[in-house]
Write a structure and sequence with these properties.
- With 262 residues, this protein is mostly helical.
- It has one domain.
- It has ten helices and no strands.
- It is elongated.
- The two termini are 38 Å apart.
Length: 262
C-alpha cells in the first residue's frame, strides 16, 4: 500500500465523476489487498478510515471485511495457542496467559492505542512459520509466539457468531477524527472478540476450576482497554463467572491481585 497522504492528495486533485471513479478504484485495490493478507495491522485500519472519509460515507461491507479478517486472525491464534481446558481442575494461578498478552499487544497496535510501540511504524508482515502436527501438540502456553503475526494461520473451522453487522453500529468513520474512528472500529471488533471467546470456550458443560485462567486473562484484557467505554467485556466476564460448577470461580479481588503482580 502507498503512503496515505500521497494517495489522498492525488485523489483530491480531481473533481466530481473522475474523483469518484478513482476512489472506487482505490477501494477495489484495497479490498484485493485485504483478501490476500493473512494479518490486519494498523496500516489497514488507517486505509479503511481514509477510504470512508474520501467516500464521505460508511462503507459497511468494507468495514465488515476488514474486521472479520482481523477477528479470524485473532481467533485462529487463540485456537492454536491456548492450552486451557475449562473442564479440568486447577488449584494455583499466578499469571496472565502468554497468548492473551500477545493478543492484547497486537490489538492495541492494530487500533492505534500503542503507536509508540509499533516497530518502525512500517507494519511489515512477519513470516508465518509452518508447523508440524507434533510441534503444535507439544507446545505449552509459555512457548506461544509473542506476536499474532507469528501464529500458524492454517484453515480452522470456527463459529460465525463473530460476524456481527457493522452497519448496525454507530461508526462515523467519515466525520470523526482518526482517533475516534479507530475507537469506534475497536468497539465493533471487541463485540466480535467477545463472541469468539464464547464460541471457543463455551459448551453444554459447566466450567471447572481451570476456567479461572480464562477469567484472569479477560480481566487483563479489560484492564488494558479500560479507557474504552464498552460493556461487552463486562457481560462476557459475568457470563463466564456464572458458568462455574460448584462456585469455583476466583473472586474479582483475587484476580486483580494476580494481574497486579504479573
Amino acid at each position: 500500500m502507498h503512503d496515505l497522504e500521497d494517495i489522498e492528495e492525488i485523489i483530491n486533485s480531481f473533481k466530481d465523476e473522475k474523483r469518484s471513479d478513482i476512489i472506487q478504484y482505490y477501494s477495489g485495490l484495497f479490498q484485493d489487498h485485504v483478501n490476500t493478507k493473512n494479518v490486519i495491522t494498523n496500516k489497514e485500519i488507517q486505509v479503511l478510515i481514509s477510504i470512508c472519509k474520501l467516500e464521505k460515507k460508511l462503507d459497511s461491507a468494507l468495514v465488515e471485511k476488514v474486521l472479520n479478517k482481523k477477528i479470524d486472525q485473532v481467533q485462529t491464534y487463540i485456537l492454536n495457542n491456548n492450552k486451557v481446558d475449562v473442564k479440568e481442575k486447577k488449584q494455583h494461578f499466578s499469571k496472565v496467559s502468554k497468548w492473551m498478552k500477545a493478543v492484547v499487544k497486537d490489538v492495541r497496535n492494530t487500533f492505534g492505542y500503542d503507536r509508540a510501540e509499533e516497530v518502525n511504524n512500517n507494519f511489515d508482515e512477519l513470516e508465518v512459520p509452518e508447523q508440524t502436527k507434533d510441534q503444535k501438540e507439544n507446545r505449552n502456553d509459555d512457548q506461544s509466539p509473542d506476536s499474532l503475526n507469528e501464529a500458524s494461520l492454517e484453515n480452522v473451522k470456527v463459529s460465525n457468531l463473530n460476524k456481527t453487522d457493522a452497519s448496525k453500529t454507530r461508526i462515523e468513520l467519515y466525520t470523526n477524527t482518526e482517533e475516534e474512528a479507530s475507537s469506534g472500529l475497536f468497539q465493533s471488533f471487541n463485540k466480535k472478540f467477545c463472541n469468539s471467546i464464547i464460541s471457543i470456550f463455551f459448551s453444554s458443560e459447566k466450567f471447572n476450576s481451570s476456567a479461572n485462567q480464562l477469567l484472569i486473562d479477560l480481566y487483563y484484557y479489560k484492564d488494558r482497554f479500560s479507557k474504552v467505554k464498552d460493556s461487552n467485556i463486562d457481560k462476557l466476564i459475568d457470563k463466564i463467572s456464572g458458568n462455574f460448577e460448584n462456585a469455583k470461580a476466583l473472586s474479582e479481588a483475587e484476580i486483580l491481585e494476580i494481574i497486579k503482580h504479573d
